[in-house]
Amino acid sequence: MPFTIATWNINSLRLREGLVLDLLRQEAPDILCLQECKSPVELMPREAAEALGYRWFVARGQKGYNGVAIFSRLPVSDAGGIDFAGTGHARHVAATLENGVTIHNVYLPAGGDLPDPEANPKFAQKLDFVAHLRDHFRADAPRRAILVGDLNIAPREDDVWNHKALLKIVSHTPVETDGLNEARDEGGWVDVTRADIPEGPLFSWWSYRSPDWDGADKGRRLDHVWASRDIAQAAHSSRILRAARGWEKPSDHAPVFATFDL
Prior knowledge:
By secondary structure, the chain is an alpha+beta fold. 22% of the residues lie in helices and 26% in strands.
């Protein structure tokens, strides 16, 4: 059964509900995973999505902050959520398809501006989250699983517009990139996007601070699609919908897609 999954940090679902519904109409992924919804679950647009055929919905919400949601045209069941780093934040939710594939939707902390865990508690929390992610999936190896979301780390040199310039900038510091790579490898995950698009600059986020984001193209690949090794070969057709970053009142992230033949 082929299905397409999309992941998107929407940066306020209530503010950008129209953009989400436009994406569902125009791109029609079978499953859409959203992060940074900034909304309690009861205020998320479940009925509007259902009217477009997305009858299944699993989410964890939080007023004004964080929040993750899964809208699906395929039957899914709630597979719980993990409180990575013990913050109590709504940063993970999982759903299982009828074919047994479990989808993990993750929103990793941004980490603030200062890449020093002693001076910046937000950065320390980010590193704790990555370590917990690593330890959890090392202890419970994922099988028939997909992990998507805004991981707020651009791990490769060509995942940022200027590797050397960003080595001391949060999201591309060595302690972050090494940590994320270790979490991926220890969990037995495969970076589906880079398996499909192995070479060249690839970005999913562009700062609001750049008025000419498209021309300057100072982006980073912060949004990811991973798959457990047993199903990674079934993934294909990865892409980033860059055009969405130019929509009216956009998120600073663009949706990332992958299709699986399972």
